Amino acid sequence: MKKRGIFGKAFWVVLVIVSSLFLFTSWFGGEVLGLYDTARWFDKALHAFGGILFTVIGFWVASRSDSKKPFFIAMFAFCFCVTVLLLWEFFEFFIDLAFGTNMLRWQDMARSKFGSGLHDTMWDLILGAAAALLTSIGIWIWLRIRKE
């Protein structure tokens, strides 16, 4: 693999480790330990962290393009992340429809202490997008400083 800018071997090692920990934490903490149902912060923290993680992946994708404009790269990274967040919510919806699961927590409306499934989904998207926006701004500032 050709080293390109900051995306050397160390970047990929860190990305694989962080992504693996993210997936394991969401599965083990959320489903096995039941933190999705008992700790409101857990789901929100995962969506915010996912916003950061997918923005960094979007940054890598954009940096592979011919454009070296910091604003384009940061905007692409943000849009990439928001698209992944939205597609994830679509995935949860269709899994619930197809298999009768409750990933969106829509079946818990009457007994949930955290609100309806719509409320949960919207906050998931808002927190993920806010994390993506802050990360994109950080990328834009870093690229501008690095360019000067």
List keywords for this structure.
148 residues, 0% strand, elongated, 5 helices, mainly alpha
Explain what this protein looks like in three dimensions.
Helix content is about 75%, strand content about 0%. With about 150 residues, the protein is mainly alpha-helical. The chain has one domain (about 40-145). The chain is elongated. The model has no long low-confidence stretch (mean pLDDT about 85).
Categorize the overall geometry: elongated
The helix tally amounts to 5
Unreliable spans: none
Largest sheet: none
**How many beta strands in the DSSP annotation?**
0
Question: SSE order in H/E notation?
Answer: HHHHH
Tell me what portion of residues adopts beta-strand conformation. under 5%
Terminal residue distance:
28 Å
Report helical residue fraction: over 70%
Overall domain count: 1
What structural category arises from helix and sheet content? mainly alpha
Q: Let me know the average pLDDT.
A: 85
CA-based gyration radius = 17 Å
